[in-house]
Amino acid sequence: MSYAMASALQAAVYQRLRDDPDLSALVGDAIFDAAPEGELPELYVTLGTETVRDRSDVVGTGAEHRFTVSVISAAAGFGVAKDAAGAVSDALSDARPALSRGRVVGLWFERAQARRTGTAGRIRQIDLRFRARLEDN
To answer: What is the model's pTM?
Structure first.
């Protein structure tokens, strides 16, 4: 197993989201590795948790990364958040972004969960889960 490609995958996912024109039209540059301190935008995207499993075989070293991208909105209702979540899904599903180490064999959408969070459920959060299969060079 190799966790050595995790940083490369994270950087590629982040860049792909930042470069996506449909997502940018909805959230601007409010795409974060971690939400900044202070006042937050009404709608933003943040990279979330990750779980990695060994997927090495006789041919080489590999790993399966399951990671979350969250869309968070203070707007009333889920509509705005769902539009942004759809853009995230479109930007990443079946993508094969170039990595600084290794290569993406495949990247797939797995599932999403929409929920209310925050005080009195005023914040809408959609967590999108993706699976990426990586091979090391």
So the answer is: 0.93
